[in-house]
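WARN no homologs supplied; continuing
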Amino acid sequence: MSKSLNNHIELALTPEETTARVREMVTDPARVKRTDPGNPDVCNVYTMHKIFSPQAEIEMVNVECRRAGIGCVDCKKLLAANLNTHLEPFRARRARVIAEKTMEEVREAIQLP
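OK structure emitted
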């Protein structure tokens, strides 16, 4: 993934933006139809599953993709959910920092100590 190619996922994206980015990811180029068996070994989405998904889900995606039990859209939905779960603590900390700064500005504006 590369920022210059606009195919990256920023840590600060909202869950909806992250899901949209994952939906755009390239999968196994040989898998044209939903019923075609896939090869997770050449799929970018599967590579990210290995980082962000629980082991049981990684194994399920590996098997189901190879036998066309799930499609690429299903696989991307699972990844987006796991990626958003993984990023949630970071987003919460970031939101807290932004909220604290905003409250400082509000207190200053209304002259509260």
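The helical segments are 15-23, 44-52, 55-66, 72-109.
OK
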